[in-house]
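Entry type: protein chain
Record version: 2
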Amino acid sequence: MVKKLKTALVCGAGGFIGNHLIARLKNEGFWIRAVDLKRPEFGKTAADEFIIGDLREQSVCKKIFDRPFDEVYQLAADMGGAGFIFTGENDANIMRNSALININAIQYGLKAGIKKMFYSSSACIYPSHNQKNPKNPNCAEDSAFPAAPDSEYGWEKLFSERLYLSHHRNYGLDVRIARLHNVFGPEGTWNDGREKAPAAMCRKVAQTPDGGTIEMWGDGKQTRSFLYIDECLDGIRKLMDAKEFRGPVNIGSSEMVSINQLARMVMEIAEKKLKTKHIPGPLGVRGRVSDNRLIVKKLQWKPTKPLKDGLAKTYAWISDQVASQL
């Protein structure tokens, strides 16, 4: 008897996490339909079918949700790093575009009879007043309310969490929600204004000759945790395979570093001694780290590798990108 392939739909498949996720699912034996505004910028997709389409459009969602997929991964969003989220110039687009995508995905997913849907939320949903101390931020899942995110991106993510959970309660939609914390790795955006801190730091170090100076927004004492892409996918798959637990749950690293420490790590990897010039720029909250107590309790999962391992792989890839443009 021939075993039937499990099917998956990946929305946001042209993005960094989406493209890596597709490769993981293919290795697990899934048949995959991918959809996004564009194909992956770096590398090829492993999807069986790739549809170019705008998920804000109901006609596109009606087309792609034409069967009861075993699993749907909703990663599509209007997003970027601090230089995109915190300027205030993109607020309306961020909220409207992402909300439309989620409303459409739920509406047509339910009509198609999908079995399970993953939603990628964000650590940006946490209250800004709980993240003022760079040495001791509070990002436990139950600290999300009373709500006070520091960006419209965070507000939209929090709204969409509740959108998915309300459709679970009222319509039986089997959802899984993860609050992702600063996922990074090779084949991610690194020079288009939407890059996050690890990619930006790797680019600056790769572009600067030994003994030179790199620029950094703020004083560099703000703290974050960063999660390598492979470990992020481990956490996502663990959540999707859970029998009862649906989240929201943090998927991130508990290894907290300052941005100054992040810069020093990248310099050590590159074997360069560089100076740092601190300049004004959008910063976000003062401190943030993934609180992993809930995911350890519910799924017996946590990241296993140090930040520096992932940074080394990411720096090697970005350094090659920089060299290819010379």
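Comment: Residues 7-183+227-251 form a domain with the Rossmann fold fold (CATH 3.40.50.720).
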